[in-house]
UniProtKB/TrEMBL annotation:
Top-level taxon: Bacteria
SUPFAM superfamilies registered for this protein in UniProt: P-loop containing nucleoside triphosphate hydrolases
Organism of derivation: Colwellia chukchiensis
Pfam families in alphabetical order: KAP_NTPase
Family matches, as InterPro entries: KAP_P-loop (IPR011646), NTPase_KAP_P-loop (IPR052754), P-loop_NTPase (IPR027417)
Matching PANTHER family: NTPASE KAP FAMILY P-LOOP DOMAIN-CONTAINING PROTEIN 1 (PTHR22674:SF6), NTPASE, KAP FAMILY P-LOOP DOMAIN-CONTAINING 1 (PTHR22674)
Domain spans labelled KAP NTPase: 15-380
UniProt protein name: Predicted P-loop ATPase, KAP-like
Annotated signal sequence range: none
């Protein structure tokens, strides 16, 4: 099994991206700087942050590195304070051995309480205090950057400050001396204390902000707002990993009344240099699978690193020379069960094109890893039950489930049951003498003919294999959705939101669909259909059906899947126009 978290070992040649980020944040002339690492769920953003951090640890220049996992503080009331306190606590620890430096670090940390109060005012009490959500917050937060010339324009934020004072009066005890409370003064002194402290350290501070796209929209933006405290201060770099579209959609959740222009410009103003995570192709997924396989096989750390370096070098030079072969990769290695590992590498090489090119996987590293973990889990279950099933058979079926969805998979297992473990259609697909176009495929399988053709040629061949045990094993996973087990949080949220849709048109859900990775669409549609199967009475149009139609109109495979399900229902008057609409879409 493989852990579903960021890796400190580069399996996908992400070192190139990490080195580019390192070049940016170690250039003194560019400080202070903010770098955005943008990519979809599971694309590898966290791994790139880890690789960057590890690279800096070996640098001659010493750095103070802070890792802030925004999701860890998801349940906290004040995300701004969580980031400030994480930075402050790191600086206090780094200064512990120097009495003078330690005093300054503690003095800086002591200012967090007052800044925290301001955070509570802006996040929790703005509405109660009568502070305009956009105007008040932006004017106070504008102080964080010190204005264009670094000076604080107090008159410009007088209304917001007065509102802050009103709330401060209502919260006696949060500040010992409320008369001395002055937001502009506190922010200016906070920034000065930080600048003096960094100057004393004489080391750059690098802050990595991760997992913003796992947070609620409000907390994600609140964390980014806190970063503005430091953006124009010396010797500081922020490296922020995020789903770009998710952040843009989160802006109006935080800044009520934000215009479309504000949503578009928000990240552009906060992030100086964007770095986009490259989507892995066939060669990268081949290398990724081989690395995961070698790791699972139990090769030594030294052997794993040699294999990794060889694969990395091959990827870097792939523009001018053929990829490294399996035998070249394994030569001169005294690996235990060498032939067994070679056989596993051959399978990895055969799987790579399907996993990289299938629209429901698209080479997403997290999806690939979760699929392999499902294979491992099923293999262990089969072993406990005495089933003679190998990983190749289980893997082939798991890929079918992910790429064609629940209905197509149920049809496969229905054919296995009906034809006593030997479906005729599989024998025809595997017969090189039978033309693919001449084979009568089930309607549910016509979602992706190119995938069916490639999948049928993937070993092992099923023609003479009794698939009854494999179908039995796999079917146990499908009710809970073997597909949904690898669904992102955003996709699960989309299922929930679409199921609540009561009207034909929803701008919010339309936007949510377009910002969800397309490789997740079939998983979402499967989730919707699983919910619909719980409905007993179809005489009335159920809530969520328009949500499903909205998704179906965005993707042909989803459209065919929904059509197949709806046609299996008792015909109702309300259903006819929906069927006609979907048939005109596909």
């Amino acid at each position: 099994m493989w852990s579903d978290k960021e890796s400190k070992i580069d399996f996908l040649n992400f070192n190139e991206a990490a080195e580019s980020i390192k070049d940016l944040i170690t250039e003194k002339e560019l400080m202070p700087i903010s770098v955005g690492v943008f990519g979809d769920w599971g694309a590898g953003k966290s791994t790139i942050l880890e690789l960057t951090k590890a690279s800096l640890e070996t640098d001659e220049q010493e750095y103070i590195q802070v890792h802030f996992d925004a999701w860890t503080f998801q349940g906290y009331d004040d995300a701004k304070a969580a980031l400030l306190e994480t930075i402050a606590s790191t600086l206090v620890k780094k200064a512990a051995d120097d009495k003078n430096l330690s005093a300054k670090a503690k003095e800086f940390a002591g200012r967090i309480d007052k800044i925290r109060l301001m955070g509570l005012l802006m996040d929790g009490g703005a509405a109660l205090a009568g502070i305009p959500t956009i105007g008040g917050i932006q004017k106070i937060m504008g102080l964080f950057s010190g204005g264009d010339d670094g000076e604080l324009d107090v008159d410009d934020v007088k209304g917001a400050v007065d509102g802050a004072k009103d709330v401060a009066k209502k919260n006696k005890g949060l500040i010992k001396d409320k008369k001395s409370f002055s937001p502009p003064k506190e922010i200016k002194e906070f920034r000065k204390a930080y600048s003096d402290l960094l100057k004393e350290f004489d080391k750059p501070l690098i802050v990595y902000v991760d997992n913003l796209d796992r947070c609620s929209p409000f907390n994600a933006i609140s964390t980014l707002e806190a970063i503005r405290l430091f953006l124009f201060l010396p010797n500081t770099a922020f490296v922020i990993a995020a789903d770009e579209d998710m952040i843009r959609l989160a802006v109006p959740e935080y800044h009520k009344g934000a215009s479309q222009r504000h949503q578009t410009d928000y990240l552009d103003k906060l992030i100086q240099i964007p770095v986009h995570v490259p989507r892995p192709g066939v060669l990268e997924i081949r290398a990724y699978l081989m690395m995961l396989t070698a790791q699972d096989h139990g090769v030594t750390d030294a052997q794993l690193e040699t294999i990794r370096c060889a694969l990395e070098e091959s990827l870097r030079l792939s523009w001018k020379q053929p990829q490294i072969t399996i035998d070249e990769l394994l030569q001169d290695h005294a690996i235990e069960k060498h032939s067994e590992l070679r056989s596993k590498f051959v399978v990895a090489e055969q799987l790579a094109p399907l996993l990289a090119e299938s629209t429901n996987i698209n080479g997403n590293p997290r999806i690939v890893k979760r699929l392999l973990n499902q294979v491992k889990m099923r293999k262990k279950t089969a072993h406990r039950r005495g089933m003679q099933l190998d990983e190749k058979t289980i893997t082939k079926l798991v890929i079918f489930e992910r790429c064609l969805g629940t209905q197509a998979t149920n049809k496969l297992y229905e054919l296995i049951d009906k034809e006593k473990g030997f479906p005729k259609v599989l024998a025809e697909l595997e017969n090189s003498e039978v033309e693919f176009d001449e084979i009568k495929l089930p309607e549910e399988w016509k979602l992706d003919l190119a995938f069916i053709d490639k999948w049928s040629k993937l070993p092992p061949m099923f023609t003479e294999m009794d698939l009854t045990p494999a179908a039995y094993l796999s079917r146990e996973s499908i009710p809970m959705g073997a597909v949904n087990a690898v669904m992102s949080g955003a996709a699960q949220k989309l299922v929930e939101d679409l199921m609540k849709q009561k009207v034909r048109v929803s701008g919010v859900n339309s936007t949510a669909i377009t910002t969800t990775p397309k490789e997740e669409y079939m998983s979402v549609m499967d989730g919707l259909i699983e919910n619909f199967k719980l409905i007993g009475d179809w005489t009335e149009r159920p809530t969520g059906i328009y949500g499903a139609v909205l998704l179906a109109k965005q993707d042909d495979k989803c459209c065919l899947s929904l059509l197949t399900f709806l046609k299996s229902l008792p015909r109702q008057r309300w259903l006819n126009p929906i069927l006609k609409e979907l048939e005109g879409t596909k």
